[in-house]
Write a structure and sequence with these properties.
Largest sheet: 4 strands, mixed
Number of helices: 13
Number of strands: 23
Distance between the termini: 19 Å
Structural class: alpha+beta
Strand content: 25-35%
CATH superfamily of the largest domain: Enolpyruvate transferase domain
Radius of gyration: 21 Å
Bound molecules: ligand EPZ
CATH class of the largest domain: Alpha Beta
Number of domains: 2
Strand order of the largest sheet: 21-22-1-23
Helix content: 25-40%
CATH architecture of the largest domain: Alpha-beta prism
CATH topology of the largest domain: UDP-n-acetylglucosamine1-carboxyvinyl-transferase, Chain
Length: 417
């Protein structure tokens, strides 16, 4: 039986992309900042935010908590003055992992929060035990009921949390839960650029947060509204670089966050890609067939897991055998099955993937099983011979105006339904 999908994309491969694209604002920076507006207790403006499906879901959750949210010219206006803690229903929280990020800010503001266990991309187990451990270390009580309802309540009287493992979401949640405690610190914190963006937003909202190191420090302060600029999406920027390379094209990617993508850019250079830094843009020049590569994913500043499927798509046509170790998510290999339908040769041994490059992929009927799998299949299809039919229900969760932007650089894509 075919998996459910909401649109069918017909992609004609083999056309070298050429031209300029601008990177959209970051989904994974915006989602926690939307949750953090709860702490501002007033009007906030998140400029340059774009209406991705995950963002629309997060906005709907904010509204159910009582926030006023309006899309405005070039961003979102949120007023969280009248927010109150309440359960908002599994049909929404089940759609995305980031729904769990409301726990931290609600706890800091009201001393209680309830949610259903979150959903999200099926790329591994993705428990929330480190989030709960962080809340408990702060002094809160936690309870997860059999039906998956999570309750956290009490008083956050402690100031130091040592997270059991490095996690983006747990760091964000516990940072927000500790925000109202002057002198608080979160140890063993993740250092992703999205954590830095959240720290900057929390500082705008009055809390003096320093993030980006393995220790997050909180000076504390009084809540206030404020304006926050959402930074460029590093994963989307990387997807664009891969799309130009897969088609043997050349282009200029404006708003390429160089310092957030060092590991990714260095890997492509090692494979023989011709890339040049041009101010805040990356130039992708006409490149030879890539060499096989060996790399592992890891927490920032190591190679980002979200770009692993996308680089896998590129390596299906590289010269020789590549080896990838997926260190973050235990089942992030679904894209390899789908790429196999297009003629890619790969083997999965637990978390280690071997990809033997072939000269050419052939268009085929494929399905996106998660967001980055969808992006990887688009990259592969653009560089393949013939037509690919992609059954998709994920790409619009994270890529804004993707099809129009691809068309603007010469891709032939049709939305068939
Ligand atoms: C964030 O997910 C991103 N999502 C993911 O992007 C990204 O892949 C991931 O970070 C890693 O960079 C958002 O920002 C909304 P983690 P998150 O907690 O926070 C384990 C995309 O495609 N862990 O850093 O859920 C976990 O199972 C998405 O845009 C626990 O064991 O990731 C995983 O193995 C997909 N217990 C590892 O840590 C916990 O309590 C890293 O996960 C929490 C995490």
């Amino acid at each position: 039986m075919l998996p459910s999908f909401e649109r069918l994309l017909k992609i004609r491969g083999g056309i070298p992309l050429k031209g300029e694209v601008r990177v959209q604002p970051s989904k994974n920076a915006l989602l926690p900042i939307l949750a953090a507006t709860v702490l501002a207790e007033g009007p906030c403006r998140l400029s340059s935010a774009v209406p991705l499906r995950d963002v629309e879901n997060m906005v709907e959750m904010l509204r159910r908590f009582g926030a006023k949210v309006e899309w405005c010219d070039g961003g979102i206006e949120v007023d969280t003055t009248d927010v109150h803690p309440q359960t908002i229903g599994r049909e929404l929280t089940g759609k995305m992992r980031a729904s769990v990020l409301f726990l931290g800010p609600l706890l800091a503001r009201f001393g209680e929060a309830t949610t259903d266990l979150p959903g999200g991309c099926r790329i591994g187990e993705r428990p929330i035990d480190w989030h709960l451990s962080g809340f408990e270390q702060l002094g809160y009580e936690t309870k997860v009921e059999d039906e998956g309802v999570v309750h956290v309540w009490g008083e956050g009287k402690n100031r130091v949390v040592h997270l059991p493992g490095v996690s983006v979401g747990a760091t964000e949640n516990v940072m927000m839960a500790s925000c109202t405690q002057a002198g608080a610190s979160v140890l063993n914190a993740a250092r992703e650029p999205e954590i830095v963006a959240l720290g900057n937003a929390l500082s705008r909202f009055g809390f003096g947060v320093t993030a980006g190191d393995s220790e997050v420090q909180i000076a504390g302060g009084k809540p206030r509204g404020g304006e926050v600029e959402i930074p460029s999406d590093r994963i989307v920027a990387g997807t664009w670089a891969a799309a130009f390379l897969a088609t043997g094209g050349e282009g200029r990617i404006v708003g390429y966050p160089h310092k957030d993508l060092r590991a990714f850019t260095a890997l492509l250079l090692e494979g023989g890609a011709r890339l040049e830094e041009d101010g805040d843009a990356l130039l992708v020049l006409k490149s030879p067939r890539l060499k096989a590569l060996k790399f592992g994913t890891g927490a920032f500043p190591a190679f980002p897991t979200d770009l692993q499927p996308i680089v896998s798509a590129l390596l299906t046509k590289a010269r020789g055998k590549s080896r990838i170790v997926e260190n973050l998510f235990e089942s992030r290999s679904n894209h390899l099955n789908e790429l196999g339908r297009m003629g890619a040769r790969s083997w999965v041994d637990n978390r280690t993937f071997t990809i033997e490059g072939v000269k050419q992929l052939q268009g085929a009927l494929v399905s996106s099983t998660d967001l980055r799998c969808g992006a990887a299949l688009v990259v592969a299809a653009l560089g393949a011979c013939g037509e690919t039919l992609l059954q998709d229900r994920h790409i619009s969760r994270g890529y804004h105006g993707f099809i129009a932007s691809l068309e603007s650089v010469g891709a032939q894509i049709e939305v068939c339904r």
